[in-house]
Amino acid sequence: MIGSIRGTVIDREPAFDKGNNEILVETGGVGYRIVVTPATMAAVSLDAEMFLYIHHHHWEADQKLFGFPTRDERNAFEGLLGAHKVGPGLALAILATYPPAELAQVLANDDVDSLCEVPGVGKKTAQRLLVDLKSTLVLPTLDTTDGEPIDLTDGGARSAVLSDVRDALEALGYGTDEIKSAVAALDQADIETATEPGTGSGGLLKKALRALAAGA
User: Fold this and answer.
1) Can you tell me the distance from the alpha carbon of 79 to that of 82, in angstroms, rounded to the nearest whole number?
2) Where is mean pLDDT largest: 4-13, 99-108, 123-132?
3) Taking CA 102 as the corner, what is the angle to CA 99 and CA 107, rounded to the nearest 5 degrees?
């Protein structure tokens, strides 16, 4: 089982229609074909030395190497593979859209709409992924402003209040990009407060509107 590779990049093949960005890394006289994300491909230079954490994936009749510049990315990729009906192609597409820290934020916010931005992911798939990924992913710890870690396994209440905010902004005539930006600007501590009994999403909506006004 290959866990990492350090060597010289001797060829690169950016993806067009087939979806795999592939580089050829030579080490000890052996060239390894490695699939990487578009971001990693963009950082690759020919004849440069490169270190990658490797996930060595086996199928019944095939095997392939997937390379990542950080351990967090490899851990996230392997966690994604643990979710129901998530293969290497979809896992790589998710990481290409949301690096680990951003993906952690998407999960913390139960942000179905953001997951739908991943190519090939519809709303039903995104809803299933939110449930599956919280139990399979190892992601960077996100902290609230008071220093407490966000619990990704307790998202039902957050999902409800954020859904209320999105619905209210949509009713006020804001577009998808504006709503996404406003929700992303909300403080995690405020979101947690809004889930407390008797509080609701009114305060969050006001903060979202202020964020939109500040960005106008």
Assistant:
1) 5
2) 4-13
3) 115
The verdict on pTM exceeding 0.70 is no
pLDDT at 147 over 50: no
Q: At what angle do helices 176-184 and 202-215 cross, to 10 degrees?
A: 110
| 162-216 tens-digit pLDDT | 777 877 888 888 887 788 778 777 876 777 777 777 677 788 888 889 888 887 5
Fold for 71-151, please state it.
DNA polymerase; domain 1 (1.10.150)
Who's near 180: CB < 8 A, 6+ residues apart? 113, 114
Rounded to whole angstroms, the Cα distance separating 84 from 93 reads: 16
Q: How many CA atoms lie within 13 A of 58 on its CB side?
A: 3
Work out the percent of the chain whose per-residue pLDDT is above 70: 84
Beta-strand pair 49-58/63-68: antiparallel
- Residue 153 to residue 87: CA distance in whole angstroms: 23
Residue 6 pLDDT level (bands cut at 50, 70, 90): very high
For 158-169, letters b (16+ CB in 10 Å) and e give bbebbebbbebb
**In the chain, where the domains are located:** 4-69, 71-151, 155-216
